[in-house]
Amino acid sequence: MLKLKSLFLLSFIICTTNLFAANYTFTELGTFGGSESRAEAINISGQVVGWASDDQGTGRWFVYDGTTLTDLGEPTGFQSRANDINDSGQTVGYAYTNASTYNAYMYDNGSATELGNFGGNSACAIAINESGQITGYAYDGSGTYHAYIYENGTMSHLTPIASNVSYAYDINESGQVVGHFYNSSNQYRAFIYDNGQITEPGTFGGSYSDALAINDNGDVVGYAFDASGNYHAFLYHDSYLEDLGTLGGSRSQAYAINNEGLVVGNAHIAGDQYHAFLYDGENMIDLNDYIDDSLNFTLMYAMDINDYGDIVGYGSNASGQTRAFILYNQDAVRTTVPEPASLLLVFSAISGFLFKKSIR
Question: 190 near 235, Cβ under 8 Å?
Fold first, then answer.
C-alpha cells in the first residue's frame, strides 16, 4: 500500500529498461520466538511493518528498521497486527480484546491510540496517509461492517454507501479511498470514494471485484472475477479496467501500486501454487526468478512496494514456515527531497539509471 510522495520521486522513473536489471537484496525477517511472520507495508525510509509470532504463538505488531525487529507491544494484552506505515513512522493496525473482538489502533512515537467504532465491538485500521488520515472498517451496533475515514479524532462513514456492508483498504494523499461494498444483489464490488462520490471500476464479466490499493495519481489495483468464476489482478487507470493476467495459472490479485505505476501481488503458477509478482507496465514477472535458488525460499505474497522499488511480503522458507521478506533495490538512487533549484543536479545524477516505466 502506497504512502509515498516527493518531487524527486515523481522524476525518479524516467524511462525504461526492465526493473530487474537492478540488483535486489533479499532479507528474511525472523520472529519473536515463534514460527511465523508477515510483512504488510514499507515506507520511503525502508521501515517495514507487519506481525510476528512469539514463543506462545501470539502475533505481535512489529516495525523493522533495516537491522532490528522491534515489538511495539499489544495495547490490549492480546495479539496485535500492523497493516500500514506512513513516511512519518505512524503505524496502524488492530489488536484483539478477546478471542473474537478487536480494536483499531494507531501507534505514534510509541504511544497507542484506539480509534473507536460505530457502536459495535470491533474495528480494524488498514491504511494511513501522510496527513494522518486512516481508513479501514468497523462494526456498527447491529453487527454490520462499514468502511470509514478517521481524521481529527473522528471516525466517519463513507457516503453514499454508509448503509451498505463495506470495507476500505487504502487511502491516498488526496483522501481518495478504495475498497469494496455489497450491492443490492449481495455481490461485493470494488469502489473508489472521492469526496462523497462513488465510482465502481467494474468486473471482467463476473459478479465480484475488490479494490485494494490506490496511488497518488488515482490509479487503483485489486482483483475482479470473470464469467467463469476465476479472478485476475486489475489496474484501473483513466476509467479503463486492465486485466494484468496470471503467472500461468487461473487467478491473481494485486495488493499495491506505487506512484510510478509498478504493481505487486500474487498469482497462480501452473500447478495452482501462488507466487509473488511484480507488474512493470507490460509484463507480470515472477519475483522468485530474481532470488537465489539456494535460499530455498518461495516468495508467495508481495504486499507492498515503495517508490524506490523496495518490495515486502511473505512466503515459505526452507523449513516450510511462513516468514516476512524484503527485497531492497540496490540500484535505487536514494536521497532526501531536493530544493527546486537543485532539481537539475538530481536529474543529472539519475539520468543514467534506467527503470521500467509504468503504463503512463
Answer: no
Residue recorded with cell 527546486: 340
Contact 315, 298 (CB under 8 A): yes
Integer angstrom CA distances of residue 146 from 100, 155, 159: 18, 11, 10
Confidence (pLDDT) at 352? 36
Question: What letter represents residue 154's amino acid?
Answer: T
State CA 348 to chain mean position distance: 32
Q: Is the pLDDT of residue 57 over 50?
A: yes
Q: In sequence order, what are the beta bridge partners of 154?
A: 151
Report the relative pairing of strands 134-140 and 119-128 from DSSP bridges: antiparallel
Asked if 168 contacts 178 with a C-beta cutoff of 8 angstroms, the reply is: yes
- Evaluate whether 94 touches 78 at the Cβ level (below 8 Å): no
* Amino acid found at 91: T
**SS3 (DSSP) at 76:** coil
Please say if the pLDDT value at position 350 is more than 50: no
- Residues contacting 198, CB < 8 A, separation 6+: 158, 160, 161, 191, 192
Angle at 284 between CA 282 and CA 289, to 5 degrees: 125
How confident is residue 341, by pLDDT bands cut at 50, 70 and 90?
A: very low
C-alpha cell at 184: 443490492
d(CA 240, CA 214): 14
For residue range 155-173, list pLDDT tens digits in order: 999 999 999 999 999 999 9
pLDDT tens-digit series, residues 247-297? 999 999 999 999 999 999 999 998 779 999 999 999 999 999 989 999 999
d(C-alpha 68, C-alpha 102), whole Å: 27
- Whole-angstrom Cα distance, residue 67 to residue 310? 16
